[in-house]
Amino acid sequence: MAIEDILMNDESLFSNINAFDPDYIPHNFNYRDTQMQAMALAIRPAINGGQPSNSTILGSCATGKTTAIKKVFELVEKNTMDVICVYINCQLHTTRFGIFSQIYKKIFGHLPPETGVPFSRIYSKIMEHLQKNQIALIVALDDVNYLFQNKTANKVFYDILRAYEEYPGVRSAIFATLSDLEFKYAFDKNVNTVFIPQDITFSPYTYSEIHNILNDRVKAGFHPNVMPDEILEQISNYTYEKGDLRAGINLLKSVGNIAESQASKIIQQEHYNKAINSQTPTPLLQTLKSLSPLEKSLLEIIINSDKILNAGEASDLFIKKENVSYASFNRILEKLEFLRLIDTPFTGEGVRGNSRKLILRFNPEDYNYI
């Protein structure tokens, strides 16, 4: 098909191509009721005039954290005017001024002037509004680890959580979303005294859950009978192996585009094969590249071993190589498991956790790409 024909063809396999966008909020959002209930319980006191609770929203990429927060915030604002919920993507807004500008916009309907107005005036206007109207503030800081890279986190958390000291009656809380356990050790003592969060953990999706989620997305995005069951099953397997739901959603869109460009009325095996060949292990590579030198060092020990190591064997090798403590080893091991790079099942042997086997969750050859 000619390029012009591709661009101008008005026949589509998609009923709603936006269903495959990263910011799409599905009507059916399943398997996260427990986590959403925990968020609701943290916010509930604010609806009744009390102090909301802080939370850390923990989980690896593409486990539904952002969607769950937005769903809960939507329900809160639908049912009360006494709580303002602000979602902030910390990859996009990394400065103190930028973050409070988003809070200002949510409250007043427009951004504050970028120049000529000091931060203190913007901050005061926000807090005075909350104080006067007895409105609680819940701020979700998504990917909050980005705030630590430019040393913004401590100040932002302090500004939000200790506002009551200067503005009595102000009630505020933070939902901090992250996929990095080191976050818990990064605050200074002034923040740690007021940020005492509950942990809300988003476990990785099972294969069955992934298949059902992708099937719901097929129903939302494609016309009926476009996606054969066997192709959906292959995409579900691919997604589970990658450990990233976004990879599967992107693949759905890709196979649809390829089939459509070839004027096919149904997605076929050749379209799936072509889409797979064009895929790159981007989510995995991003995770691997984000590791610290010590984290990479432990992972390399696991990768380069000619057998499956247990935790005790890996700790001996790692401590000897890097001259670190066992506590450091254990914390790094916990993070590698948290990021779904390894599994650590117990064997029923040994003591003090040394019976755990360290099993890679990805193809070791992918490590060569970083």
Question: Key terms for this structure?
Answer:
370 residues; alpha/beta; Helicase, Ruva Protein, domain 3; Rossmann fold; Arc Repressor Mutant, subunit A; 3 domains; 5-stranded parallel β-sheet; disordered N terminus
Describe, in plain words, how this protein is organized in 3D.
With 370 residues, the chain is of the alpha/beta class. Helices cover 51% and strands 9% of the residues. The protein has three domains: 3-12 and 206-279, Helicase, Ruva Protein, domain 3 (Orthogonal Bundle), CATH 1.10.8; 33-201, Rossmann fold, CATH 3.40.50.300; 286-369, Arc Repressor Mutant, subunit A (Orthogonal Bundle), CATH 1.10.10.10. The protein has helices at residues 3-8, 33-47, 65-79, 96-108, 119-133, 145-149, 153-161, 163-166, 189-192, 207-221, 229-242, 245-261, 269-278, 282-289, 293-304, 311-322, 326-338; strands spanning 55-58, 83-89, 136-142, 172-178, 198-201, 342-343, 359-360. It has a five-stranded parallel β-sheet with strand order 2-3-4-1-5, with helices on both faces. The protein has a two-stranded antiparallel ribbon with strand order 6-7. Helix 2 (33-47) runs parallel beside helix 3 (65-79) and helix 10 runs parallel beside helix 12 (245-261). The protein is globular. The two termini are 37 Å apart.
Summary of the model, kept short:
The chain is α/β, with parallel strands linked by helices. The chain has 17 helices and 7 strands. It folds into 3 domains: 3-12 and 206-279, Orthogonal Bundle (Helicase, Ruva Protein, domain 3); 33-201, Rossmann fold (3-Layer(aba) Sandwich), CATH 3.40.50.300; 286-369, Winged helix-like DNA-binding domain superfamily/Winged helix DNA-binding domain (Arc Repressor Mutant, subunit A, Orthogonal Bundle).
